[in-house]
Amino acid sequence: MFACLEKFSEENNIKLEEEIKTKILMHLTNLKQDLEIRFQDTSHGDQWIINPFTCDLNTVKMNLKEKEQLIDLMSDESLRSIFKTTDLSKFWIRTEKEYPLLFKTCLLKLLPFAST
């Protein structure tokens, strides 16, 4: 159910009651449902933002010019290397000049989730 919580409990000799585990599970389930309702437009068609190198081009929601930029980006081995070692936001900032359409879309999608 909660692998990290169970591991932590075992390592620290903490025994959680089933009632507490049930409440945590209910809370997380409700939170998941609430987020799915609030962010319905964040669909699988935007998975390319999370990892542009493994996305399925058939499920991508974008116009032809954006798709061409994505194909070019997917072929860019230097960016692939940077992607593996860089924070997602910083990665997309690096793409601004070479892939401006992708950058703009990512900016609009990621901006609401910026941390302080």
Automatic annotation (TrEMBL):
Designated name of the protein: (apollo) hypothetical protein
